[in-house]
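Sample A.
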Amino acid sequence: MTCMVFAFPGIVNAENHEETSSLEDVIIIDDIPEGRAGNLNFRDTGSEYQATIWIDPDGCEHWVMDDGFEGYMTPHRTRDGRPVCHRSDICGVLPADQFFALNQHNVTAAGKRSLREFFKKTQSETFGYLIYGHTDARASDEANMALSRLRASAVAKIAQDEGVRVIDVKGFGERQPVALGNSSAAYKQNRRVEIYCAR
């Protein structure tokens, strides 16, 4: 079990229902199952704070509370002070030409079937998925960023529909090529969606 301690002014303490008055006051939430944030809601005068877990690019967990206007975050640590981190390996690379039509972000029917099968096979050994979209360099940076985000989001939606945890979804456009040059072969390699499995 894990204990969360927050120092937030103006939030009602879940234990004694008194409002904290300064940054020195704290909210202690005890008996949180390891690795889960639970359904924790705290209300101040007009906001609802949602507690969740965010995993950074290094695979380490952070407790997060956010009301949409401002947020608070602290590293998730074990009782002896060690950070809670997951190993993250690339477990799937989707060639965009096989899963998406040209300049489109909707996954093809065959691509959806393949992705559903992939998530079913890997979910038992995976804590969550990080999904990153990439494009080639032939359009503008702005268009490539938008397309890569939309493609990553489309793959993430299929994952979520299968009931798996999606930790992070990002689009990198043309900024992280795996092949250099202006050949059609290089462009083809760079158009991809990468799936990382956090274990």
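Sample B.
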Amino acid sequence: DEDEYQWQHLEALSATIKKNIRQIVKAIDFKAHSGNANLLQAITFLQDIFEKGKILRQIARELFPTDFIGKSLKKYVFMGKGIERLNAERYEFAVYKMLRNAFESGDIYNGRTTKYRSFTDDLIPAERWARDKSKILSDLSLPVLNAPITDTLQTFKEQLEKKFIDVNQRIINQDNKGLKITGEGKNIKWTLPYRRGEEEENHALFQSVTTIDIASLLAYVN
């Protein structure tokens, strides 16, 4: 199991990982959207343990929040059945692994950063939007935002259908030189021509070199 070897490697590097990452986790105020409450609970649990200077592996296993651990992680974090078989070190690594993924996707964020803050921080406050919606849309000078959505979709549909007609007509007239046309009349078919890349050993340079036997080559080198 390749993943098991990776977890074993993490355990071998545990001292270095803990020394660097724990200080970062302690210092950051993490926030989460509702769908990641379980992971945030696990992060808060670790922060509390680190802040109080407690040893993680000495904490009662039933106190560990585990709802964030999916099926794919569970077999590497638990060394058997039952909460008492939870591996504390691997639990910590699992939190970091899930935290990294959630941080990159924006599911967990920090409002003090520019890269990892919540998407909602860039939105107009709901109160202002409800109060000044018409003025905001007018100030943007984008007619498409003020038009009924049905009209906008109909316009896009007409533009797309015209492009279909134009493309098909160019194929029928064989105006598109980038296509390979076969058949006639209603039986016209087209495909994209694929050119096989020249293999490196068959490059034109080598084709211009005279072929000699190995004995002649060795005699020439000597």
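B remarks: The first helix runs from residue 2 to 12. The radius of gyration is 32 Å.
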